[in-house]
Amino acid sequence: MPALSEIKREWWKEAIVYQIYPRSFQDSNGDGIGDIRGIINRLDYIASLGVDVIWLNPVYDSPNDDNGYDIADYRQIMTEFGDMNDFDELLAGMHARGLKLVMDLVVNHSSDEHYWFQQSRQSRDNPYRDYYHWWPAEKGTPPRRWSYFDKESNAWAYDAQTDAYYLHYFSEKQPDLNWENPKLRAEIYDMMHFWFRKGIDGFRMDVITFISKHDGYPEFEEKYQGQHMIDIYAQGPRLHEYLQEMHHEVLQHYDIMTVAEGPGTKPDNVMKLVDERRGELNMNYHFDHQGIGVGERYIINEDFQNLVEFKRVLTEWDEVFSEHGWNTIYLGNHDFPRMVTRWANDSPKWRATASKMLTTFLLSMRGTPYYYMGDEIGMSNIKFDRIDHYKDLMTINWHHLTQAEGGDLNEFIESHKITARDNARTPIQWDSSEHAGFTTGTPWLPVNPNYTMVNVAAQEQDSQSELNFFRKMASLRKQSMTLIYGDYQCLFADHEHAYVYTRTLDDEQLIVLLNFSEQSVALELPMAVKDSALINNYDHVDIDGKTVTLKPYQALILNTLA
Ligand code: NOJ
Could you tell which of 206, 230, 423 is best to mutate to test the pocket of ligand 1, judged by most ligand atoms within 8 Å of the CB? Predict the structure, then answer.
């Protein structure tokens, strides 16, 4: 186990990342859509949380087929969000408060309204033709490719103008960029320099594992059909060559952080992305825990809160980085449901306690925590009961597909109350006024009706609130090299209700005890512990000798006497 003096310290390993989905954070002009001015107005709140880095979802010019993940101009700000002056003011305001800004880099695909695509589809000999992937119709139907958002799951769209199909792993309005073309790569690197010269502090790279496509678009084996194609999409033959080139051309010139969104990354391939000796990216986030108990089209089964499996996955991922690379920890983001609904209990009785328990987990693991806005006040899923309440094209299209196949729509709606992305996209609940203080207009997505009880203003007044618990936990992590760098060991791996682990660095050992259930749990520990808790979401610690009894959803961090 390395001593602190042997560990390569980095600011991004010691940071807490707070994610802002701008559409839902704060509206400032009454159009019902969050905007950059709204974030500027809330900067003091963000700084008060004790976080270090803000990851901002895309704010670039976009027709919003996929809420900004379909970019029409990489160097302009979306009108709904403001303009470049607002952006510059936001960045300066963050830096003035010691906050860093990480932007989204969405370069697997652009919008079909991007100038490059508008040109590309004009004619087969247009200079931009090779900026995208085309399959001429005279070659017949293209080999099967699965699409996340297409109404028929088909990633090839026919375009009559040039009698050819173009590739889109996401929606028809998100054509995949052709990284095989060096001119396209040069354009992207140039655009990255543009943002770094403005002073941003890093990029979160959207589905970056998909950028290299297989030469000649071969048919994939049967086992990779449907959603399983994700695994092979992530294994494009030139992925690492491109990332090393990007590192050489751009990343190495700045003191910044990078994190891959890594669908298809697994413990046995992730090191290629993040081993610092290879010069690619700093971090990656995987989907393995999010997939527990969740099947095709996000239909859940009884395993979706299987804690033993959850611990197994997270422990396996921790081991990968024991010598090189660095892990990430997250439970939710704009693509997943609210953490308290997904992983614990959002009933009025337990929501607050369970949220604090999950906050303790996120901020006490080894790896940079990515914390999603609103989780600090324990926001929970809105649970729409009708498809026409949803705005997310993924949910809408999957519902359409299920209907077309004569599938079980009731099961679909029930599952999506737990899993759908819109659950995490409802507006932040600032106070108990109309629309939770998010907007004076009509919010683009409804506010969760629990805002009258669950909101920032109420929690500011309450020293025991989820919000103030978050601040306390964030400050503990910042002060504790053991929580940041300490070795991680999972205890009671087979226990169905408790997640217990030690974090050890030099001569300090902490033990984190988390009860993921509604029942009390007694645990006989292998070592003696101090009874004064560093963190506790109850006001009492029940210790008898080496036996600690945890109340429902209790979270404790104690010093051991080992
Ligand atoms: C991942 C993003 O997080 C998600 O919101 C988006 O829909 C897809 N990539 C496509 O860009």
Answer: 206
Query: What's the CA-to-centroid distance between 243 and ligand 1, angstroms?
Result: 19
Task: Give the pLDDT score at 222.
Answer: 93
CB distance 210 to ligand 1 below 6 Å: no
Provide the pLDDT for residue 41: 98
Average pLDDT of span 370-376 = 99
pLDDT > 90? residue 9 = yes
Supply φ then ψ for residue 256, to 5 degrees: -135, 175
Instruction: Name the average pLDDT for the chain.
Output: 98
| Distance between Cα 22 and ligand 1 center (Å) | 14
Which residue type does 158 have?
Y
Question: For residue 206, how far is its CA from the centre of ligand 1 (angstroms)?
Answer: 6
Structural domain 115-167, CATH architecture: Alpha-Beta Complex (3.90)
* Calpha distance 194→197 (Å, rounded): 5
Comparing C-alpha atoms, which of 84, 54, 43 is closest to residue 203?
A: 54
Decide: 207 in ligand 1 pocket, CB within 6 A: yes
pTM as predicted: 0.98
Which residue has the CA at smallest separation from atom 2 of ligand 1? 206
β 368-372/17-20 pair status: parallel
- The residue from 27, 52, 70, 261 that is catalytic is 261
Tell me the mean pLDDT in the region 337-346. Answer: 98
Give the CATH H-level superfamily of domain 486-559: Golgi alpha-mannosidase II (2.60.40.1180)
**Cβ of residue 206 lying under 6 Å from some atom of ligand 1:** yes
Out of 70, 172, 176, 206, pick the active-site residue: 206
261 a catalytic residue: yes
Q: Which atom of ligand 1 is nearest to the CA of 170?
A: 10
Burial 412-423 (b: 16+ CB within 10 A, else e): bbebbbbbbbbb
pLDDT band of residue 510 (cuts 50, 70, 90) is very high
Per-residue model confidence (pLDDT) at position 562: 78
The domain ranges of the chain are 8-110+182-473, 115-167, 486-559
Atom of ligand 1 nearest to the CA of 70: 11
DSSP string covering 21-38, please? Answer: -GGGT--SSSSSS--HHH
Rounded CA-CA distance 171/154 in Å is 9
Judge whether 206 counts as a catalytic residue. yes
Which CATH architecture is the domain 8-110+182-473 placed in? Alpha-Beta Barrel (3.20)
What is the C-alpha separation between 228 and 216, in angstroms, rounded?
20
In eight-state DSSP terms, residue 513 is E
149 burial via Cβ count (<10 Å: 0-12, 13-18, 19+):
buried
Task: Quote the ligand 1 centre to 45 CA distance (angstroms).
Answer: 27
The protein residue with its alpha carbon nearest to ligand 1, atom 8, reads 69
Ligand 1 atom 4 nearest Cα: 335
Residue 84 has pLDDT above 90, yes or no: yes
**pLDDT tens digits for range 104-138:** 999 999 999 999 999 999 999 999 999 999 999 99
pLDDT at 369: 98
Rounded to the nearest whole angstrom, what is the distance from the C-alpha of residue 70 to the centroid of ligand 1? 9
- Check pLDDT > 90 for residue 1: no
